Amino acid sequence: MGETVRMGNTFVEPQPTPLALLLLGQQSDPDSERGVDCPGELPAASDPDLVRRAAAAKAALGDRVFILGHHYQRDEVIQFADVTGDSFKLAQQAAAHPEAEYIVFAGVHFMAESADILTSPDQQVILPDLAAGCSMADMAEIGQVEDCWSALEAAGVAGSTVPITYMNSTAAIKAFTGRHGGAVCTSSNAERSLRWAFEQGEKVLFLPDQHLGRNTAVRDLGLRPADCVLYNPNRPNGGLTVEQIRAAKVILWKGHCSVHGRFTPECVDEVRERVPGVIVMVHPECQYEVVAKADAVGSTERIISTITAAAPGTAWAVGTELNLVKRLAVANPDKEVVYLDRTVCYCSTMNRIDLPHLVWVLESLVAGTVVNRIEVDADTAHWARVALDRMLALPGATPAKD
Ligand code: SF4
């Protein structure tokens, strides 16, 4: 396929991949999905009345429902969002609307958990499709993390190690972090979080995104790549010797985002040839080698604000989820906004939430039935909140994420 991803005034779709079929709900992706069913009498995707039905149900619920739309969501869902943003901003927005009995989170599972943790017990958080997990969050199971901690204890370093977990983690991992003196971080405050952690201890266990951890430790804190080791939860002792664990400053969990992990250094080279003068901006969940070749790095909120404020006539290649990049292109017709990769790179799990699922949950609420409620148990919520509050107490904390 030729010039497929130049945008400007007209967005041209990148080349489809087999994964793109997931957008139509035609396949599953066992590598990146939670593998749970989402039973329910969904309306047919072909129903031409879906937009009207969603609008009618939302209007009937009024202030009782508040719909959160993550930046990576489809347009068909985003049009019904009361607020759009990254995961932390959305969780905060949910907490800021106590009048809303129902929080419908058009995002993924860990985001709905965070919203449940931050909202009052009277508010019910709903995830329209229970199969909307996050491949990165699912790469760190609590049992695996406890095994890792045992390995650190056996190496005699657990007492001097501070866990930092990315927002993109399950509530159980956040609670583990809270119990062990650590904090949550976002992609915009990872540097502050790591610096804080090194004031509390000598080592950091960074979960679950190895790339955000490595990019922050090396680019922002000036550590050497060799100061970081990779803990593989699928290998005995993480695939590390006791000496390697003792020598490391940062122990990176072997997790990654299946969307941002797809960008390669070659993508950067290719787009520079294709679009003269282009400024390459990528998300810090991208591989270290990609970030090193880019001109700028930032969270989704940072990417949006940077390109929005950029001079007319500038050209940008953006390395993050495709729905966001498409909307950026439309919102900035005076600039050229192109996608960093030539092939489709949607978040397949996020995209499981579609109009039929939204209509189903809203019409169920109108009928008095709460479906797909996400609830975090009280003890987990307490300790996860401890880890979140430590992040919020960091100086100048203005979190924004994913
Ligand atoms: S884009 Fe990556 S990190 Fe974000 S929800 Fe999707 S899989 Fe998870």
Descriptive notes:
The chain has 402 residues and is of the alpha/beta class. It folds into three domains: 13-133 and 349-371, NadA-like (Rossmann fold, 3-Layer(aba) Sandwich), CATH 3.40.50.10800; 137-257 and 381-392, 3-Layer(aba) Sandwich (Rossmann fold); 260-339, NadA-like (Rossmann fold, 3-Layer(aba) Sandwich). It contains 15 helices and 13 strands. The strands form three sheets. Strands 6-5-7-9-8 form a five-stranded parallel β-sheet, with helices on both faces. It has a four-stranded parallel β-sheet with strand order 2-1-3-4, with helices on both faces. A four-stranded parallel β-sheet has the order 11-10-12-13, with helices on both faces. Strand 1 (65-70), helix 2 and strand 2 form a beta-alpha-beta unit. Helix 1 runs parallel beside helix 14 and helix 3 (87-95) packs parallel to helix 4 (109-118). The longest helix is centred in the last third of the chain and has 15 residues, at 378-392. The two termini are 30 Å apart. The model is unreliable at 1-8 and 17-34 (pLDDT under 50).
